[in-house]
Structures are given as C-alpha cells and as structure tokens.
Amino acid sequence: NEASSREAYRASVLHSIGNPTHMGIENSFQYFEDGLLVIKDGHIEALGHYRELSEQLPTSLNVIDLRGQLILPGFIDTHIHYPQTRIIGAYGDQLLDWLNNYTFPEEMRFSDVDYASEVAIEFFDQLLMNGTTTALVFGTVHPESVDVFFQEAEKRNLRMIGGKVLMDRHAPEALSDTPETGYQDSKNLIEKWHNKGRLHYAVTPRFAPTCSDEQLAMAGKLLAEYPDVYLHTHLSENKQEIAWVKELFPESKNYLDVYDQHGLVKPRAVFAHGVHLCDEQCHRMAEAGAAVAFCPTSNLFLGSGLFPLEKVEKIGVRVGIGTDIGAGTTFSMIHTMGEAYKVMQMQSCKLHPIKSLYQATLGGAEALYLSDKIGNFIPGKEADFVVIDPEATELMKTRMEHCKNIEEKLFVLTTLGDDRAVSQTYSLGRRVYSRDN
Ligand code: GUN
Ligand code: ZN
User: Fold this and answer.
1) Do 252 and 210 share a structural domain?
2) Protein residue closest via CA to atom 11 of ligand 1
3) Residue after which a domain boundary falls, among 311, 346, 367
4) Could you report the predicted ipTM of this complex, rounded to two decimals?
5) Relative to the CA of 241, which ligand 1 atom is closest?
6) Which protein residue has the closest C-alpha to ligand 1 atom 8?
7) Which of 367, 391, 410 is the last residue of a domain?
8) 80 and 145, same structural domain?
9) Based on the domain organization, do 235 and 312 belong to the same domain?
10) Does a structural domain hold residue 1?
11) From the CB of residue 328, how many other CB atoms can be counted at a distance below 10 Å?
12) Which ligand number lies closest to the CA of residue 302?
C-alpha cells in the first residue's frame, strides 16, 4: 500500500464547465486568478481561490508555487495519426494525391517495428511538450504499430485511444489487409489493450474508399461484439473524395450512410473532418451520438475546405478538435485553436476563445464519452493538466500586458502561442514533461 499523496498547485487556473453555446460564455467557465488546484492520489480533490482554500487545508500540505503561470486542463486531440509524424509539411497535393505520394510510402515503413517504436516515442514526446494528454490516434495497417503505440502510452500513464488501420483496397499491397485478417488482428488488439489501465481501442477503417463492403461489415461486427470500443475514421473531407465515394457506393444515400449501413454510426464513433456534410448527415450524427473532429490546420493545408462549425453544432453534433498530424501542420492544440478562429473568420463567424478552450478540452472529452474522467477540474476527475507560461516569448510578454482580462489573454495565447508556452504537463497528477529540463 502506497501512502496517499496530496499536492497543491498555486497559479491562475482556468477550465470549462460546460458548452458556451448552451449556457452562455459567462456561465461556461471558471477562472481563479490566484487559484489553488489540489490533487490527491492523481485525481482532482479541490479547486478554488488560494486564500479561501488554503485556510481549509493542513499547513503541512505541499504547495507548489506557480504564480505567474496559467493552469489549464490537458488538451484532448480528437484526431491524429502518429505514423505521419515525419511527413508533416509535404508539398503540393490535396488529399488523394497526398495519400499516394507521401502518406502510403511513409506508412509502409511501419512494417519495421523498430522504426514504429522510434516514431511512437517521438510522437508522445511531441504530444506532451504541447500539453496534449489524451488523443484519438490512427496507427498503420500493421498490428505491431499499435502495440508500440500502446506500450509508449502505458509507460507515460496517459489516457489514450488508438487502433490499427483497416484497408483492403485502393492502397499498396504492402498496406492492405483483408476483411478476415483485419478483423482478427483488431480483435487480438482489443483483447490485449482495450480498457487496460487508461487505454482504449478504436476500430479504425481508414475511410470508405479504401474499405470494401465486407471490410466495413467486419468493423461493424467488432463494434457489436465490443460495444464500448471506439470507431475512428474519415468522412467528407475533400470534394474529389466525396465524388469517389459516390461512385464506389452508388446504393448509399450519402457518405455517412456508407458507414451507417454497417452499424458504424453510434456513440463513441468519431469522424474526422466532415467539412462538406449536408444537414441530413449532421442530424443523423447528432441523433446517433457520434462526433466529428474539426481539424483546421489540416483542412487549410490540404485545401479541403472550411468546417461549418456553427451549423454542425446547432444541429447538435458533438465536436472535438483534432490536429490531424501529418496533414495538419502542428501538434499544438493552442495553435490549432488559433487556426480554428481563422477558419471561422472566413465564414464570418466569431469563435470565442472560451468556446475554443471548451472544444479543445471538455468538448473533446464529451465527444469521446470521457467527460466523467477528464476535460476539466471537477473533483474526482483525473489530474491531467498543463502549466502555461503566458509570457513565453518577448512578444507574448509585451502583448499580454495589454490584455484586460483572461478572455483576452487566452485569445492572444491562441494567436501567438504554441509549444513554447507549455512549461509543464501532468498526467494523473505526475509530471510527464517539463520545458526546463
Ligand atoms: N483520409 C484517408 N486517410 C487519410 C489520412 O491519412 N489523412 C487525412 N487527412 N485524410 C485521410
Ligand atoms: Zn486524418
């Protein structure tokens, strides 16, 4: 029996407590300028004003003084590909050519488990130095790529979701499985990793164009056998892709319907992109409790289009934010929030910084059905948090001095900030990254 441990962090503390769209900006967050976050055995015990809370606690309590810093919940990246870490910034192509010219050749390297392991380590180092503590992650078609992913996540004690790519057509031979091997490999990985500690499995058909009907049916079979595993795929990202899906599945009503016909549209299903969804598809996702991952840097980089956040949300679809590395151009959720703002500007919509904080933390947790465990600092939740240095650069320092309130500071952080602004990252109350060593 380990002795129980309790620590407290004194800093400014900000977190979301609900969706601003439903409860209004003011009611949707809490901010403690001089706050105290108390952690017991890796979980949140209390949060409050330093003056009030410190009086109620024993004087022997270990208070870590982080005044001048801002504590936020750990970021939740709802769509990312770890095997694409080394192809960020591949020039010149939109989705389908980008896959053939850059992505598939790189993913072939993951047949070498040592290579996969090296990239997995790089990947987690990047996530943590950017303050991301939970992510929904694509592997490659190789089951070993998922083993090394979960091994690295386990070492760092992170709440992580991942899965093996299913793809049995329109891809290089070396990256193709079959409905049967894909099913069996996924099943083995589920048995090995799903709900082991903080890990979860996602059945991961790449996208409709690379999956036969038989393969999508097998994905549906896995979900029926394991009702609490995730479903992770791509949807309606690029106009050419959508036209191709229409050709390949002429009997389907729309792109989402291809997945729906196989039982893949359900709670814990996360569809990346959804840039070009019609209202009908949004209504279906909302009704099913499925989520969409908004990936602004990827949508801009591949020229995919502008995600209609306001419409999708109004219809009631759960929305998370994803970096979508390697089509996305940054691991930083802070920077991604800034790019989400610009995508909304292009549609004459104002994305409030408190709203984008919600999407990047609690909203992501809700999209993943994990908001009972992570996403904010409600007592009892897991202590995954990030310590932000709002004055990380000279420019941020001088700019922050002009800010009137926390909303402005947060907005400037998303405009100017990235991994330089992350000074420490904590998982389950334990420090897993520090900028200064
Ligand atoms: N659609 C199918 N595969 C991919 C991928 O790897 N990245 C993106 N952005 N879209 C996809
Ligand atoms: Zn993707």
Assistant:
1) yes
2) 234
3) 367
4) 0.99
5) 1
6) 327
7) 367
8) yes
9) yes
10) no
11) 27
12) 1
Domain ranges, residue 228: 75-367
37: its two tokens: 């976050």
Ligand 1 binding site (Cβ under 6 Å of any ligand atom): 81, 95, 99, 103, 206-207, 234, 237, 298, 324, 327
Per residue of the chain (437 residues), give pLDDT as tens.
456 799 999 999 999 999 999 999 999 999 999 999 999 999 999 999 999 999 999 989 999 999 999 999 999 999 999 999 999 999 999 999 999 999 999 999 999 999 999 999 999 999 999 999 999 999 999 999 999 999 999 999 999 999 999 999 999 999 999 999 999 999 999 999 999 999 999 999 999 999 999 999 999 999 999 999 999 999 999 999 999 999 999 999 999 999 999 999 999 999 999 999 999 999 999 999 999 999 999 999 999 999 999 999 999 999 999 999 999 999 999 999 999 999 999 999 999 999 999 999 999 999 999 999 999 999 999 999 999 999 999 999 999 999 999 999 999 999 999 999 999 999 999 999 999 97
How many angstroms is it from 170 CA to the middle of ligand 1? 13
pTM (2 decimals)? 0.98
Mutation probe of ligand 1 site: the residue of 94, 136, 210, 237 with most atoms within 8 A of C-beta: 237
Q: Are strands 43-49 and 132-138 parallel, antiparallel or unpaired?
A: unpaired
Instruction: Give helix then strand counts, H and E, for the chain.
Output: 18, 16
For residues 146 and 275, membership in a common domain is answered with: yes
Q: Whose CA is nearest to atom 9 of ligand 1?
A: 327
- Site to probe by mutation for ligand 1, drawn from 206, 238, 259 as the one with most ligand atoms within 8 Å of Cβ, is 206
Same domain? For 28 and 92 the reply is: no
**Ligand having the closest approach to the CA of 207:** 1
Question: Can you spell out the DSSP letters for 406-433?
Answer: HHHHHHHHHHH-SGGGEEEEEETTEEEE
Is there a single domain that holds both residue 186 and residue 104? yes
Please report whether residue 219 resides in a domain. yes
Q: What are phi and psi of 166, to 5 degrees?
A: -105, 125
Please count the structural domains in the chain. 2
Distance between CA 109 and CA 276 in Å, rounded?
32
Q: Which residues of 343-366 are buried (b: 16+ CB within 10 A; e: fewer)?
A: bbeeeeeebbbbbbbbbbbbbbbb
Note whether 419 and 274 are same-domain residues: no
